[in-house]
Amino acid sequence: MFSPEGYQALRNGIALVRRLDLGVLGVSGSDRLTWLQGLLTNDVAALPIGGTCEAAYLTPQGRMITDMRVTQFADRTLLEVPASLAAALQRKLDGLLFSEDAQIEDLSDSLTVVDFFGPDRPTPHPHVSATRYGRPSTTTFVASHAVNAVVSEWTATGVTETTLDTLDAVRVEAGVPKFLVDMGEHTIPLEAGLEQRAISFTKGCYVGQEVVIRVMHRGQGRVAKKLVGLLLGSPELSGLPIDVTVSGKVIGALSSAVWSPTLGQSVGLATLHRDYVQPGTKVDIAALVGLVTAEVATLPFL
């Protein structure tokens, strides 16, 4: 459920969110970074202790298997992945280990990700500071059996706990796609705009690199479809995803839509044919009252 108070805390104050939408995989062993470097799109081998980055794991055809956030600690590397995929990803990655000194565990039951938004919060728990959804944040990995007590301690100091639905509004305002919602197994990461934050173009080879490089160098970055923002007004929508049309022709789909208190209207993320991605382009979506006009906008909204 959306919380107006939680939204204001996320935007302008100090808030925390239990990231129950995320699972955690732990990779240990002396070869773990070399091994991960050959699998993931970003330069994870360059991460310092306490460093973090976004990355994607691709098929050889350059399609996404998942996105993730990678955090480097002295004894292990943690991968934040969609919770529903964690167990299958652990098995898949474990099957790719041969003679490497690396072990991968699904820690989703034992660790809970808690995201703080606002100034850095001192904490004894493993954590990393970064920018998430356009705000300074601290991602903390808390033992699941202790998370209720730990969150209570933090809220007693004036931190506002809010919901995933509220965080989702901030995510969409920031123009950040969510895997299994705005992108999926058929997505090339360039279509979702991940090249700026999740892909290194200077590291060595990784699975799916050939497709990414071919699009960037031979195709000048042009892809058949692209993630864009839509200014929606105030329509009542019946469910997502929703076809986006122009003159009755389907040109893509609206995958995320939220009410933005800051903008005073609904905004959304849609993947559209490249001929319709210029800001200001008018498109149609099906609302409960019938077709309504939306406008393509530059991301991020805020």
How does this model look, in words?
The chain has helices at residues 4-12, 32-37, 86-94, 147-156, 164-173, 209-218, and strands at 15-18, 22-28, 52-58, 64-72, 77-82, 103-106, 111-117, 127-132, 135-143, 160-161, 225-233, 242-246, 249-260, 265-273, 282-287, 290-297. The chain is α+β, with helices and mostly antiparallel strands and 302 residues long. It folds into two domains: 4-173, Gyrase A, domain 2, CATH 3.30.1360.120; 224-302, Elongation Factor Tu (Ef-tu), domain 3 (Beta Barrel). The strands form three sheets. The chain has a six-stranded antiparallel barrel with strand order 11-14-13-12-15-16. A hairpin with a 2-residue loop joins strand 12 (242-246) and strand 13. It is globular, with a radius of gyration of 20 Å. It starts with a helix and ends in a 5-residue tail after the last strand. The model has no long low-confidence stretch (mean pLDDT 95).
Low-pLDDT sequence parts: none
Number of self-contained structural domains: 2
Helical fraction equals 10-25%
Q: Strand share of the residues?
A: 35-45%
Secondary structure class reads alpha+beta
CATH fold annotation of the largest domain: Gyrase A, domain 2
